[in-house]
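User: Fold this, then the next.

Assistant: Folding the first:
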Amino acid sequence: MNGSSYKSGWLLRTDEKGDSLWSMNYTLDSFDGHYLSGIAQTSDGGFIMSGENYDWDIRKQSIWVVKVDSLGCLVSGCNPIGIKEVGSSPKHLIVYPNPSSQSVSVMYSSRNANSIIISDNMGKTIFTQELRNSKNEILLDISNYSLGLYRVSILNKSGEILMSKKLVKY
């Protein structure tokens, strides 16, 4: 039997309603066939998966273990969820520290800035505030946010997005 039909492992993350948030494929190039069959969530919000891999030429079978972060990344920060950043230049909006678990500072440089919004990865606005700070900086508490990817946007008076940046809550 040739095991070449099993070439990857697949992880799908859904919300509480079952809607897809992201999915990732994991492969091993050095083996003829492999699959993932077990999964558990880890204490850091990531996942650990296990399965088997085969090398049919030498008839070798071994275990396959994959550990990923809460976004399905093998290497932290791979950001499988796409959020388009807008603005004339990324240096006009700075969000730091990023990723963060407690609070972030948002620095922006625009005379037309009127408000700031934070949207989750589904596009739902979870925070909004009018900007009245002449220092062009705001400190945001994100400690109660769920783990995941967010978009921080600066809007003008008309509600148009002047600039935006990704924010990762871990």
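Now the next one, as you asked:
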Amino acid sequence: MMCYITVVGGEAEGRYVKLDGAKVRWHRDQLGWTLDDLAEQAEVAKGTVLRAEHGEDVRPSSGRRIARAFGIEIPELSPEKPGMALAGKAEAPATGPSRKGREQKNASLLLPDPVEPDESERRSSRFAEAIFATADKSVGAMTAPGTDPGTAAGMVDALLTLHESVVAPMNDDQSLQALTHEEGEEILAVARRLIEAATAGVQRLEEGAEDADQEEEASRRREQIRELTHRISA
């Protein structure tokens, strides 16, 4: 069971925090920052910024870093009641990047209450369902008795290549901004499933390694998985 953060008297406790995505985007826009700029200033991964702007779980430490990059504290980015107005302008920290031609707005901005679809209405696209099915079949084939290590290694590589293609839109600011909340969630879900499938394949390679070369190949793929996992969950 997930444990969510609570804010009491300005102190944050818990394992996860949900920020108000509209507020995070508002502060970032006021400073003229890109997603990369905010990630750099907050010292968090770009994927963490994306999750924060989508109202998804982030670590409390990441939430605090994002807030302090804006020169505020985390309660000021917590979800509020519908109709909550955010007034004034956000000032860039002295060490922050220069504004990119955007003027600061000195007026109140009404933040819309994010509309979350009912859980029963959420459905994976055919694209996602096809990849889920491919990942499941790959795991079955890679872990089946008698599967050749070379075949398993090739399937792991194919899964990792597919993973990189799936998350490609998240590595480009323009493509990332064009994603809807649901599309971003789906990409992350598909990416995680591909990582899980590739991990199962690598475990099969490690268990079946017969010499130093095979052990080294399994270790190389394990390290690649760690790197890809960090990109989407740091």
